[in-house]
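Changelog excerpt

This revision adds worked examples to the README so contributors can see how folded entries look when concatenated. The first example is reproduced verbatim below.
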Amino acid sequence: MYLEDIYVTPKYRGKHIGSKLLKAVAKEATDSNCCRLDFSVLEWNPAQDFYKSKGAANLTIEEGWHHYRFSDKTLKILATNA
């Protein structure tokens, strides 16, 4: 399963809302027989500490994976050259 975004506004941080949201996603993943939950976090984002505290592995460091994207213009160029 791929997690696109979890965002808790500053007003509600520190109230375990992020933990509850993440647990709900984890339950959905396990109930759907998923064997992993992948997501990306920007380098500057302090949420990395939250995810690490929950047991997430940083694959960039541990396995050398990097997340790439073809965005709009490049994607269209690629598609027209097919």
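The second example, added in the same revision:
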Amino acid sequence: MGRGKIEIKKIENSTNRQVTYSKRRNGIIKKAKELTVLCDAKISLLMLSSTRKFHEYTSPNTTQKKMIDQYQRTLGVDIWSTHYERMQENLKRLKEINNKLRREIRQRTGEDMSGLNLLELCHLQENISESLAEIRERKYHVIKTQTDTFRKKVKNLEEQHGNLVLDLEAKSEDPKYGVVENEGEYNSAMAFANGAHNLYAFRLQSLHPNLQNGGEFGSRNLHLA
């Protein structure tokens, strides 16, 4: 059964479209290679898919530039000059944009305002006020974030402190241990947020007679914030 005729129109399915492009691209390049060998022709192909993938083929012993130069000589056109002119126009436009932005920056700092009329000055004042409002909002957001982080740290430290106190009270009630106070000087400091708090030192000493003088476990020091 013969192959049906395919209607020439855009393939809507992107996957099918890409598959068809890949197959037919390879077919075109194959035909170009055959023409180069059979007819001693110089061929240059440039292909750009809908997915922005670039493919090219140039006959052996030549380059794209040589082909384009020969094309220009044959048709009597100058592609490079036209391209250069477009680049110059684009450069001029970018310079104007750059100069305008620089002038706006100077005006926002109170400079280069001699040529502004009343309407332009009011517009500049509006822009500066909006910028200040955005900066102020951002500043308050940063302050709030830092404050929330500080509060979380304080809460965690308070929980740790409470757990240590509960642990100390539990061990103090154990008949095997006793709290020895005024056992030397225990002074320390802990970096706590932006301030420092004193640490109170207690030494839990075993009341077991065999552990009084450096027995199996000895004494234990516990520091509480």
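Reviewer comment on example two: Residues 118-172 form the longest helix (55 residues). Helices lie at 14-39, 64-75, 79-108, 118-172.
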